[in-house]
Specification:
With 247 residues, the protein is of the alpha+beta class. It folds into 2 domains: 11-155; 163-245, no CATH class. The protein contains 8 helices and 12 strands. It has helices at residues 26-34, 52-59, 70-77, 95-111, 128-141, 152-162, 194-211, 213-220; strands spanning 11-16, 38-45, 81-86, 116-119, 124-126, 143-144, 147-148, 164-168, 172-176, 185-189, 224-225, 242-245. The strands form 3 sheets. It has a 5-stranded antiparallel sheet with strand order 2-3-1-4-5, with helices on both faces. Strands 8-9-10-12-11 form a 5-stranded mixed sheet. The protein is globular and about 50 Å long.
């Protein structure tokens, strides 16, 4: 079973109420550059994108209660500009650190006036209050007795921020976006109900993050598949494979 050489990337989508969005404050622009991210000037635009309402509509996170509000929907409907920010291709061992950096950028862009935010790499959106909460969780989770570092709490906050679940497939409920924290996707047999599937997805992901993928698969008698319905050039493609959990 050969592994892929693809390195995941974050694509962050920001909406704004005017074209100031396309020119972040110097401190924010410096942060973006210092973290190795870049502003995509090809697809960013100082005009509304008529597809955004539908795109955000299917991307809102429906797991966390009240993950967005009517005000967030109005901000999407009334946006006047779009800015895309890209991460560098991420090595697996640095994925959580880069995802933490992505949340720092999200936080600073909201403070600078962004009115809506979506993670394009997994197709997930939250309202501004939820984004702020996840940014706070990541920042606090990164604090250790030795200073700042990658921790399980930080990794979980990043996973909740940038992964979408549960997507309904023919036979499984699916995750997408676990590659952004260096983990394989988790597919759960749809003989379970949605909430039970989400709980199992979280349980397996937490175990993989804490104990490692190989040990978790061995302990739970699960197998890793390299088959994917996403092409390798799709931002949703997970080079670390898929774990299938049966009923």
């Amino acid at each position: 079973m050969s592994s892929s050489t693809v390195k995941p990337r974050h694509v962050l989508c920001f909406l704004g109420k005017n074209d100031n969005l396309l020119h972040p404050p110097k401190a924010v622009a410096k942060m973006i550059t210092d973290f190795g991210f870049e502003i995509d000037r090809t697809y960013s635009q100082a005009r509304p994108d008529p597809h955004m309402e539908r795109s955000f509509g299917v991307c809102w996170d429906r797991v966390f209660p009240l993950a967005w509000s009517a005000a967030d929907e109005a901000a999407v409907a009334n946006h006047k500009s779009v800015l895309y920010v890209l991460s560098p291709p991420m090595e697996r061992q640095k994925a959580v650190a880069y995802s933490g950096a992505a949340l720092r950028i999200v936080e600073e862009m909201i403070e600078a006036g962004a009115t809506a935010v979506k993670g394009e790499s997994a197709g997930v959106a939250h309202g501004l209050d939820r984004w702020r909460s996840l940014c706070d969780q990541s920042r606090k989770g990164a604090m250790t007795s030795q200073g700042l570092g990658v921790t399980l709490a930080m990794a979980k906050a990043c996973r909740l921020a940038f992964a979408k679940r549960p997507l309904g497939g023919t036979s499984y409920y699916e995750t997408v976006g676990y590659h952004l924290v260096g983990l394989p996707e988790v597919y759960v047999a749809n003989s379970r109900n949605e909430w039970s599937a989400v709980m199992l997805m979280e349980e397996i992901a937490n175990a993989m993050a804490e104990h490692g993928v190989d040990e978790t698969l061995r302990d739970r008698k699960l197998e890793l598949s390299r088959e994917s319905r996403y092409a390798e050039d799709d931002f949703k493609f997970n080079p670390y494979g898929i774990v299938h959990a049966e009923a």
